Amino acid sequence: MIDSLLITGASQLLTLRGRGPRRGAALANLGLIRDGTLLIRDRRIAAVGIRAKVEALPEARSAQKLDVGGRVVLPGFVDSHTHLIHAASRAEEYELKIAGASYQEIARKGGGILNSVKKLRAAAAEALKGRARAALRGFAAHGTTTIEAKSGYGLDVTSELKILRLHRELSAEQPLEISSTFLGAHVVPAEFRSRPDGAAEYVRLLVDRLMPEVAGERLAEFCDVFCDRGAFTREQSREILEAGKRRGLAARIHAEQLTRSGATQLAVKLGAASCDHLEQVNRADIAALGKSNTVATLLPGCDFHLGLKQYAPARSLIEAGAIVGLATDYNPGTSPTLSMAMILSLACSQLRMTPAEGITAATINGAYALRREKEVGSLEVGKLADLAVFDVEDYREIPYYFGVNRCWMTMKSGEVIWKAG
Ligand code: NIG
Ligand code: FE
Fold first, then answer.
1. 198 CA to middle of ligand 1, Å?
2. Helix residue spans in 13-124 (DSSP H)
C-alpha cells in the first residue's frame, strides 16, 4: 500500500477552494487557512483543513510527515499559455528592439516568428526535446505543475506534427502535465507569402490537410490563431477556429495584442476557452468578456520584455466581471520567462492587480482556461496533489520579491518534483 503523506507547518495554506472560476470580488478569495494541513493519498488530496482537524484523522497518524517550516503552500501554478517548443532564443532581436526597432518592423524583415520557424525546421526533434525538457524542469522549479503548449513555429505539415508529437512524448515522460494546442495559424509562412493568394492557400492547408491529421492523431485539445495585423484577419481566424471546433478542438485566440482586430468578439461568439493578451481591447470587448465564460488571459511578460507602455486593462476587466487569468506566454520573441512569480510581480505593479487576485488568476482561473478545473488549480479533496511551497511567510511576498525564485518545493500528483538547495 502507498503511504499517505501529511503536510504540516504551512504559515498560510491557500486552498482556492469553492466555486471556480472566479470573477470580480471573488478573485481575491484565496480560501486561506493559517497553519493549514494537507493529507495526500494516492496522488490526490484526501483531506485539507486546520491542523487539529486533519491531524485527528486516524490515517494522519500513520502517514509520512512533511513539515514545510512556516512557509506558504498554494496550488501549483497552471500556466495556460506557452510556446514551449522552439529551437533557440532571439537575443539578437532583443538588442534591435532596445535600439528602437519595433516587434512589427523586425517581423516585416523576416525576423520575429519567421526567424524562429527557420530555426525550428532545421532542428532535429531530439534537440528540440532537450531544450523543452530543460524548460520543463525550469517551470517545475518555479512552482508550475501544469502548462499549455502551442505549436506554431513549424508552419508546414511535417514540422507542426513534429512539435505536437513532442508535446505528447514530453507529457508522458516527465512529471508536468502538458495541454497541447495547435497553432498552425501563428503567421503565414514565407513560402506562401510570395504567392498572390498565399494566405488563403495556407488557410486551406491548415483546414484541409493539417487539422484532419492533428485531430485524427489526437495531438491537440485546442486550436489557437494569432489574429492581428501581420498575422491572420478576423475572417480567416473564424474559418480556422470553426473548422477546429468541428474536429473537436476547442478555440483559444491571441487577441488585440498589437492592434485591435475584433478577435475578442469572435472568441466570445465561438465560446472560446480563452482570449489572450488584450492590450488593445475597447469597452465593448471588456463588456463582452465580462458576460462570457471565455477566460481573459493577461500576459504582462510580453509588454515588459518588448518595453511597451500599454498593458491590458486588468482593473476594468475585473470590474466588468471577466474571468481574468495570468500566464507567462513563454516564447523566444515576446516573453522569454517561465516564472509565474515574475508574472505575478508584473500583474501587481503594472496591471494593478492585488497579490490575491494574481494568485487566483494563475491557479484556478488558469485551470479553467485549460478546462482542467475539476482536477487542478485548487487544493480540495479529490483533486490532484499539485502544489508549490514558497519560502515566504506571507503570500504577498511571492510577487513582492521580484526577479528571484523563492519557490522552495514543487509537488505534482503527490510526488516532489523540485526542491530548493
Ligand atoms: O504570444 N503573438 C504571437 N505569438 C507570440 C509571440 C511569438 C514570437 O514572437 O515568437 C506571443 O506574443
Ligand atoms: Fe502567445
1. 21
2. 51-55, 58-62, 91-98, 103-108, 113-122
> Which residue among 105, 188, 254, 328 has the greatest number of ligand 1 atoms within 8 angstroms of its CB, and so is best to mutate?
254
Cα separation, 3 vs 418, whole angstroms? 20
Q: What is the pTM of this model?
A: 0.98
For residue 87, give the C-alpha cell: 529551437
CA proximity to 220, closest of 370, 413, 330: 370
Nearest partner of 21 among 318, 220, 328, judged by Cα:
318
Which three cell numbers, joined as nine digits, stand for 227?
489574429
DSSP helix/strand/coil, 256 = coil
Cell of 319: 470590474
355 touches ligand 1 (CB under 6 Å): no
Tell me, what's the pLDDT at 298? 99
Q: What is the pLDDT at residue 335?
A: 98
With beta carbons less than 8 A apart as the criterion, state whether 294 and 273 touch: yes
Asked whether 355 and 396 are in contact (CB, 8 A), the reply is yes
**Ligand lying nearest the CA atom of residue 116:** 1
Mean pLDDT by 10 residues, the chain (421 residues): 88 95 98 97 98 97 97 99 98 95 92 97 98 98 98 98 98 98 98 96 98 98 97 98 98 98 98 98 98 98 97 98 98 98 98 99 98 98 98 98 98 98 89
Nine-digit cell at 209? 490537410
Ligand 1 atom 11: the closest Cα is on which residue? Answer: 334
Give the Cα separation of 220 and 150 in Å (integer): 9
